[in-house]
Design a protein that fits this description.
Helix content of chain A: 25-40%
Largest sheet of chain A: 11 strands, mixed
CATH class of the largest domain in chain A: Alpha Beta
Structural class of chain B: mainly alpha
Number of strands of chain A: 21
Strand content of chain B: under 5%
Shape of chain A: globular
Structural class of chain A: alpha+beta
Number of strands of chain B: 0
Number of helices of chain A: 15
Shape of chain B: globular
CATH topology of one domain in chain B: MetI-like fold
Largest sheet of chain B: none
Largest interface: A-B, 68 and 64 residues
CATH superfamily of the largest domain in chain A: Periplasmic binding protein-like II
CATH architecture of one domain in chain B: Orthogonal Bundle
Oligomer: heterodimer
CATH architecture of the largest domain in chain A: 3-Layer(aba) Sandwich
Number of domains of chain A: 2
Distance between the termini of chain B: 7 Å
Helix content of chain B: over 70%
Chain lengths: ~525, ~325
Amino acid sequence: MSTRRKPGRADAAHARTSWATLRAAGLLLAFLAAVLGSARAPAGGHNGHLIFGQEAAPLILDPHYTTAIATRNIAMHVFEMLVTRDENNAVINGLADDRTVSADGLVYTFRIRTGVRFHDGRELTSADVLASFERYRRLGLGNALEPVEAMEAPEPATFVIRLKEPVPLFLENISAFTIPIAILPADQRDRPGGKIDMVGTGPYQFVEWMPDSHVKLKRFPDYVPDSRYPGNAGFGGRKVAYLDDVTFRFMPEPAARIAALETGEVQVIEDLPLKAATRLARDEAIKVHMLRHWWLHGAWVNATKPPTNNLLVRRAIQTALDMEEVMAIATDGAYELQPGFQYPGDAYYVTSGAEYYNVNNRARAKQLLAQAGYAGEPLVIITNSSFQSMYQAAVDVAQQLREIGMTVRMDVFDWATASARLRDQGAWNLWFTGHGTATAVGPADAVRNMVSPRPNQFAADPVLDKLYGQLLRGRTLEERRATFAQIQDRIYEQVLFLKFGDLEKIQASRREVKGFAPYRMARFWNVRLE
Amino acid sequence: MVAFIGRRIAGAIPTLLLMSFIAFGIVRLIPGDPAAVIAGPTATPAEVERVRSRLGLDQPFHQQLVAWYGNALRGDLGNSILLGRSVVRAIGERLPVTLSLAALAMAWTALFGIAAGVMASVRALSWVDQTVLAVCLLGVSLPNFGLALLLIEFFGVDLGWLPTGGYVAFSENPIGWARSLILPSIALALPQIAIVARTTRASMLEVLRQDYIRTARAKGLSRAVVIGRHALKNAMVAVLTVLGVSMAILISGSVVIESVFSLPGLGRLLATSILTRDYPVIQGGLLLVAAGLVALNLAIDLVYMAVDPRLRP
């Protein structure tokens, strides 16, 4: 007798289920094959399409309304300035064909280049320059135009600025790139901050902005390179857009940026750690670019809150610190030690005050503390978690100061909170910071926040204030440089700011990228892909 | 059923009102404001004050609150202080990214979590069970940040199979969209897969011990039918609870994955807005997340009712 049972409804259901499962598995396999097997979408690197892996996403693209480097990287491909800075930070003409200054230093006359077009086809005239300067002044984020009494555009190719009083550094101020006076079409004059049309005169024109994802620019076909210069000149010079388009992709995670460069998904990246740079330097497909003196690292010193209201205590702190150790820990090795508040090679570079820098003498520091009568009052350090180098520097400084017997408390906030605390006189003794653009722009900007009316150290220093006024009024470069040397010496002597060192910025590109020259912005003019 | 849904929605309104009020107040208690962020750390107090006034942040708290609620009732969540666009638009641009990511991660979670849990339960104490438990332990222990980097290195750099980051919209290229989300969704899903697998396993083991399961086997039903039709359905109530929680975690916890993979999602928007004190975006974003969680809870409850008729009103 057979023991085999007859197939029932359950078995039929089971069979249907098995077929359904097989079909689903087949579909899944087909899907995976399509996804994994599909050619990687053209990510760039061919036919003049370049993708740049940028660390930070810009919050706005209006160059008049932010100090962010993330914005400047993009905006300065679309917009240009009347006068700007070259590779050595000297003032050069940009959209100005020529400039003259009256003998009394009150009237600046600019002749505007002819034949320059905006991306919408309109020709640049002085009316656009006037409107841009007026908008910049109205928004009030940058103070370069505070000494201006009047501005006018008497002819289409002439722009005139009249000052209330002579300001020898006026051209430096209006060519500064901290908040650049980018030239916009005149119809943008009354636009609120952050709400402009991205129409400029630059070699690339705006295509799209996907916040947190990317900005895409494309070559402006009617751009006429400035033939006065042989090639790159800082933010100006002869700019040729060889690339069809450039995409700035926002990639906050360094490892992801590096991976994308290695696979060729991006062709240039910024801000990679030194360890990764050392590894990538051995990769024949990749070239590493070191940009020295990117950022001055240091800490504000509160000269009114105990114990740092005592000069001897401030000297003790300054004497104790091993800046080599601070910078090595803060930066994983990409740094330089030098005492200047300007960078070597800059017109105003001086080394006065060097005897106070990186003294690293713990015994002497303890003597100074004893002389000061230091009795263990807490030293409050404010740092932030947003910039790792500042955080790590603070950790090391706190430890070094504990080793000389100081009582140290470290408060860590995010950048916005730390910035708010900066203006709270009773909240800190040392406030950790970094100065990139301000230092690069020039000596006045580098020390502006140490002088009246509201110095960051809270105590006005009459000697420093007087020297600062002298700096602004100095008629010649030599005169101003000599004054700046005194300023720097005073800052060190009174310990108004603790300078640790200079950070380096590391960028990398694939070998097929030709012409990329590191600068204070990532420049993609005069760059081509081979 | 309609009445039930209506009651749940009505009950959610006070919750959302309270949530929005808390969000409005709490961000203004945090030190720092967007004016300082825009002006930059080297700006003088006068420059910051100029920006603050221009942004209307110097108005009294109650005036700002009334203005915001008044606009919100009209569907206007205000304009992002820093992005220069409406909050609705800013969120709308990013929501598809986060929802895509979360949905795909949820699919992995449900598929692999339930499958692993069922496998472990039907072969309890075997090497299969031990392997699943070990992988689950790894899944909850390994930070998804670290896993993300490992996936990028292996599948992106070493094998070159998948992109290392970036997002492609579905409308632009469906295959590209899928490719851009595979690695981030796996990194996001792994801890949830582990949790769902453990829950499924425990729930299945409980159910498999029941008399009706023994009866079903005794009646001659195949193992697959017993497990698939009888055991799993009854075990799903507990699993659904965990899946609901997982979905909430996947949506709200995507910020790290979005940052690593450079995805322009809602998580990154909210994180950036908090760091930059972009008040309208924080308020609008939190309100949206709260509303989304309320809707999710309702959806889970409806699924419960579908699975277990005893729970129907």
